[in-house]
Amino acid sequence: MAYTIETSLPETETSLALLKVLAENSFDSILVTDASAKGKIIYANKAFKKLTGHDPSEVIGETPRILQGAATDKKVIDRLTSALKSGKKFEGKAINYKKDGTPFIMYWRVLPIKVGKKIEAWIAIQREGSVI
Q1: How far apart are CA 70 and CA 30, in angstroms?
Q2: What is the pLDDT of residues 61-78, one digit of tens each?
Q3: Which of 59, 67, 87, 118 could covalently link to 96 via disulfide, CB atoms 3.0 to 4.6 Å apart?
Q4: Element spanning 15, H or E
């Protein structure tokens, strides 16, 4: 039998509390966007601020494009866009920019959050790569 959060912690409140602790204490940046075509940010954890310099409260309602700039590889963004449109996961790396304009290499994984077959939101797990 596979062990999952649902089987290990069947109480919804306990599962939600566990996920909150995981997200808030992760070393990796976690960003959640809505499932709209614009993909507006609905959640960012504390590690997002450490990675990008953007306070989570500042980015709610923005799009992750606030991290892109002149050196962001358009081909990678096109691959991401294609994956999102087809409802598939994405993994990649690109040059992004911190709030102060400093470029950095970001590795990230984007996954759909599904309820049944409907995508309700997207989660991006991000970390910094080699310094430019």
Answers
A1: 24
A2: 999 999 999 999 999 999
A3: 67
A4: helix 12-25
Residues 6 or more apart from 53 whose CB is under 8 A from it? 98, 99, 100, 102
Residue at token pair 């606030």 = 66
Classify residue 66 by burial, with Cβ atoms within 10 Å: 0-12, 13-18, 19+: middle
Q: Please give the pLDDT value at position 43.
A: 96
Question: Residue 65 in contact with residue 53, Cβ under 8 Å?
Answer: no
What's the confidence (pLDDT) of residue 2?
65
Contact assessment for residue 113 and residue 123, using Cβ atoms and an 8 Å cutoff: yes
pLDDT at 91 over 90: yes
